[in-house]
Design brief:
It contains 4 helices and 28 strands. The protein is mainly beta and 432 residues long.
């Protein structure tokens, strides 16, 4: 049985905050949801850039070419991005090509409606490939009683740090019934639900896993060196073969080091090449978990609200200074307000899900609409409703809860007419 209630909190300056609290009885019913291919994912992503991201910080962005493929997989998408980066320039907003291959690709994409150009103030071009395997939660798994967005995913130019990163790639640990769907990254906290009923916030690492490539299994850090962000932008030069892994795919093998470290994955250096690019990767080591999801920061641990950043984030104002993990964050734990999603457990170990409604990015009415919550404010709310262990999931414009197909609150991204503009996401959670 799923139970929902709406709560309201008064804030200084006559602001208010609305929160949806959802409870149900068992973790076994919680599953990951993959929205699948969304026909409008490219267009909707470009609209988010045009309406919200670039107007908020136009001095950060140059010209952005977002594109998808009408057909083909991840390898083909990355190859197309490399072709466009090498052979395409924009002059006066018009494309110029250095070779016939690039021109042919551009014409194919243009005819299929798979190109979107958005403009910031800086004089450079960034090519951003967009995965087609993203979609709208509202159009996915319509029979599910509960749907909510989940972990972070690659979304902006800083996230697309290497040729291996594509917009719409989910990242961070995801475990379902002992199976690792994606590995842990970036030293961020995760919510672990053990088969024996324990629920805890922990910080998993790649060294906790075994990595299987083909028929061989390796322990990162013992059988081979592991390189990930924010520790490394490139692997050091040296002997061996760098195996570039994103999710459950071996995307490249580079000999001798100097390999870019993806924001959405990691590099495992082995003495010999194992497997071929495009091959499958599997993980072991989490068989004792019923469920696990990594995003961070924690909100409540041991019944006490978290008082500052524990998970590793990077300040959006200076992303170029060091190798940075994805999901750049405004590092003000106390004051930076936004829409938030929390997942955790009460004292009996039963699930709690909260959505703090964000301020509308267009047409916000102070005192009438929600103002959004800082992580500090949200942690206090989570503790007050009885959460004893819990983490923050992806928030902002992605934040929403659908219960029996309906939203009790509103998404913070809005169109000019005030209607909600839902973001396409690659991963969610559901209870059927």
């Amino acid at each position: 049985m799923i139970r929902s209630e709406l709560l309201s909190y008064e804030r200084p300056g006559r602001e208010r905050q609305r929160v949806q609290l959802v409870r149900w009885d068992d973790w076994a019913s919680l599953r990951f949801l993959r929205p699948g291919v969304g026909a409008d994912a490219l267009r909707e992503t470009a609209q988010i850039y045009r309406r919200f991201l670039i107007p908020a910080a136009p001095w950060v962005f140059g010209q952005l070419l977002l594109f998808a493929l009408p057909e083909g997989g991840e390898a083909e998408l990355r190859a197309a991005a490399e072709t466009l980066r090498r052979g395409l320039r924009l002059r006066g907003g018009e494309p110029r090509f250095s070779d016939k291959k690039t021109r042919a690709l551009w014409e194919t994409l243009s005819r299929a409606g798979c190109v979107e150009l958005v403009r910031g103030r800086l004089p450079f071009l960034r090519v951003l490939p967009v995965r087609s395997s993203t979609g709208l939660l509202s159009e996915s798994e319509p029979d599910a009683r509960l749907r909510v967005n989940a972990s972070f995913f690659i979304f902006d130019p800083f996230d697309c740090a290497t040729r291996y990163d594509t917009v719409g790639t989910p990242f961070g640990l995801a475990v379902e019934d002992g199976e690792v769907l994606s590995p842990p990254l970036c030293g961020r906290e995760a919510l672990f639900v053990y088969r024996d009923g324990r629920v805890r916030v922990e910080t998993p690492t790649l060294e906790d896993l075994t990595v299987r490539i083909g028929d061989k299994a390796f322990r990162p850090g013992r059988d081979g060196a592991v390189y990930a962000r924010p520790g490394y932008r490139k692997t050091p030069r040296g002997r061996g073969f760098d195996h570039v892994i994103v999710g459950r795919t071996l995307v490249d093998v580079v000999r001798g080091g100097g390999c870019p470290v993806p924001a959405s994955g990691f590099v495992l250096r082995l003495a010999e090449q194992t497997g071929e690019p495009g091959g499958a990767v599997a993980y072991g080591g989490m068989e004792g978990l019923l469920f696990g999801v990594q995003a961070g920061n924690s909100l409540v641990r041991g019944g006490a609200p978290t008082e500052g950043f524990v998970s590793r984030f990077w300040n959006v104002r200076e992303p170029w200074r060091t190798p940075f993990p994805p999901s750049l964050y405004p590092l003000d734990y106390e004051k930076a307000r936004a829409a938030r999603i929390a997942l955790g457990a009460d004292a009996a170990g039963k699930p709690l899900l909260l959505w703090a409604e964000g301020a509308a990015k267009i047409g916000h009415r102070p005192g009438e609409d929600s103002c959004g919550a800082s992580l500090s404010e949200f942690a206090a709310i989570c503790r007050d409703v009885g959460m004893v262990e819990g983490v923050n999931l992806d928030g902002g414009g992605s934040a929403q809860i659908l219960l029996d197909g309906k939203r009790a609150l509103q998404i913070s991204d809005r169109r000019d007419d005030g209607s909600e503009q839902e973001r396409a996401v690659p991963l969610g959670l559901m209870v059927k």
